[in-house]
Design a protein that fits this description.
This protein has about 400 residues and is an alpha/beta fold. The chain is built from 13 helices and 15 strands. Strands 4, 5, 6, 7, 8, 9, 10, 11, 13 and 14 form a ten-stranded mixed beta sheet that branches. The chain has a three-stranded antiparallel beta sheet with strand order 1-2-3. A two-stranded antiparallel sheet has the order 12-15.
């Protein structure tokens, strides 16, 4: 069996609701996506979400190869990126190709990927994450209420720009998730907006009123001194890793006791790269948490990791032209028996959304907000008003 070619298709769409954080509090609902297809000479195709045009840079490394050697092909791509670095668009391309190859491998086995990866059962625990700084109180409550109806008893709130507002909104999250548990797990995420000392002051004040399970990115992603300082000063665990590239980025954080919950995802250099980081964390008795993705397809890997805690679920309507064989029940992400990742593309919907080039530059990834790490810039009147405008749609 040989890979015969890679195809990508780009599309743009509108989310069912906006998302926003401390760096982009007005929020956005405009998204650009792509789907990667890895074709073979036996008519079986691997599918992944993402990759974009950057996959062309790596295509020659994959075409003509046996796709079943996934880890070896991952290493071949990583070595090719040696000088320029495994980051940015190149990393996302590598990750998408790796995911498509794993999808292909499981399809050739005629089984869901979670079984190919060695999971005992196709499920993992979920937590709710609204990416919700752009939501008003009513919409915030509605999101976590909907998650609670699916049995989810843990939630993560975006914070960082207004301490009083953070306090009020965290109370809303707790009240809604208390429908499931008397002591729901509460997390906050400041998206690297604070300095370590700012984080300690803000988190300590929140901990006077709430039992926080973890605080996410309370300092810069690479700052092992600052992250360790926060971890030792507050009761909550420090979670980080969302914006790191591969195992080499995690090693200094783990070695210097700067991370308590190791976050991994598709951008951790694909399934192969995320698995490596999870195994490193396991050696240090650290839990891992899977980042969100459309249709929760990375739950296939989460289900196979012995140290996986819970996976982020955002659910703003990431899946405009495909479906994934997964669902949430009793607070767990369940994966079906569809071979591979369970991604099924709706050709008619994809054709309707497909574009040669995006009509405008997407807002994601969010830029870093003014004052980050130095002083807090509260939401402007215009940014606050945007919350109400979104609700009228």
């Amino acid at each position: 069996m040989k890979v015969t070619g890679l195809r990508t298709r780009t599309y743009e769409f509108t989310l069912q609701r906006p998302i926003g954080d401390a760096n982009f509090p007005r929020g956005t609902d405009f998204m650009v996506g792509s789907i990667l297809f890895v074709d073979t000479d036996e008519g079986v195709t691997g599918v992944a979400l993402g990759g974009g045009s950057a996959v062309r840079k790596l295509e020659h490394l994959i075409v003509g190869e046996d796709p079943r050697g996934v880890v070896g092909l991952w290493k071949k791509m990583l070595d090719f990126l040696f000088k320029e670095g495994n980051a940015g668009a190149d990393k996302r391309a590598l990750a998408a190709i790796d995911v498509a190859l794993w999808d292909l491998k499981a399809k050739l086995n005629n089984e869901p990927l979670w079984r190919t990866l060695g999971a005992r059962e196709g499920r993992c625990k979920a937590y709710a994450s609204g990416i919700d700084l752009c939501l008003n109180d009513e919409a915030l409550a509605a999101f976590y209420r909907r998650m609670a109806k699916q049995g989810i008893d843990a939630g993560k709130l975006k914070v960082g720009l207004d301490q009083d507002e953070d306090m009020r909104r965290l109370k809303i999250v707790k009240e809604e998730l208390s429908r499931v548990s008397r002591r729901p797990a509460l997390m906050i995420d400041s998206n690297e907006y604070w300095s370590p000392k700012q984080a300690i002051r803000a988190i300590s004040e929140l901990e006077r009123h709430f039992d926080l399970t973890w605080v996410e990115e309370p300092a810069r992603r690479w700052d092992y001194r600052g992250l360790r300082q926060v971890s030792r000063a507050v009761r909550a665990a420090v979670a980080t890793g969302e914006n790191l590239n591969d195992v080499s980025d995690y090693a200094p954080l783990i070695a210097n006791e700067a991370v308590d919950v190791v976050q991994i995802g598709v951008n951790t250099s694909g399934i192969t790269g995320a698995m490596q980081v999870a195994h490193l964390a396991y050696a240090f008795e650290l839990p891992v948490s899977m980042m969100n993705c459309p249709g929760s397809y990375m739950a296939h890997l989460a289900a196979a990791l012995p140290n996986h805690w819970m996976m982020e679920v955002v659910d703003p309507g990431w899946e405009p032209c495909f479906r994934v064989d997964s669902w949430i029940e009793d607070g767990w992400i369940h994966l079906g028996e569809t071979p591979g990742l369970g991604i099924v593309v709706d050709e008619q919907k994809l054709a309707a959304l497909e574009v040669a080039e995006p009509s405008r530059r997407p807002d994601l990834p969010f830029p870093r907000r003014e004052g980050a790490g130095l002083y807090v810039v509260p939401p402007t009147n215009e940014e606050r008003a945007a919350r109400e405008r979104w609700q009228g749609r």
